[in-house]
Amino acid sequence: MAMKIVILEDNQERKAAMLDCLEDKFHQFEKRFFDHPAEMIDFLKDHLRETIAISLDHDLELIPTSEGRVIDPGCGREVADFLAQNIPSCPVIIHTSNSHAALAMEMVLREANWKTYRVSPCGDLAWIAGPWIRTLRQAVVGSVPRKKHVL
Amino acid sequence: MKFPIDQTPYPKDPRSKPIDAKTPDGGYVYVRDTNGIVYILPDGPHLHPKVLGGGQAAKHAGDLTVNNGKIIDVTNLSGTFQFDDEAGLKEVAEQLRKQGLSVELGAVRFFPGDGSAPIILE
Question: From residue A92, how far is each of A56, A138, B93 by CA, in Å?
């Protein structure tokens, strides 16, 4: 079964740029994007063991409904809180420009012994093909367990 | 030996060169050519087809990190070539030594093509 890279991100342009980078660097892994923290948590409840890396945005856009109202999807902190209740199993990249929220997510995860990395989005999408994919690569390659391969 | 999946005959990137003991610290993509030489470029998006250029075939490809003149990780990660053989990656490690670099214990990290968990080969 293919390991998974699981990402909380609701911006379509960012998703497309991330997917391009992931196909170039990690073609073999399944890529799953979520724009609702609750849906991502449900997925992770079943698939955390098969997840090789997680990347979390914090601020998510309000979602307009057909009745003219808006739904608040929540934020990345909810996923961080969920992860903190589980045994650390993969690196977590926090890719939000909300520095206060990023710090809080980092703290809750580190207190639960999760390995975290910070990437600060800036300007256009160049940070995705730059610091974000480099950090993700470092996180994934650096976390390969030292165990013997049985042929 | 494999050809790049993207067969566009990109020109060879002028920064591409064989790795050696003087290579500065940093992350690189690499391609091992059909003569066995490992060429590198500073890591970046979709650079593998430009390491050799011209849609040329390769013996192996992936990425690596140099730190203090040593290889601290070397992998088969390349969406362009998608090599999936452990022996080929071990040969890359041996070739890196021939080209003057030391490869740290635990640096050779293989990512199976089926997406299963990666493993350390040596």
Answer: 7, 12, 29
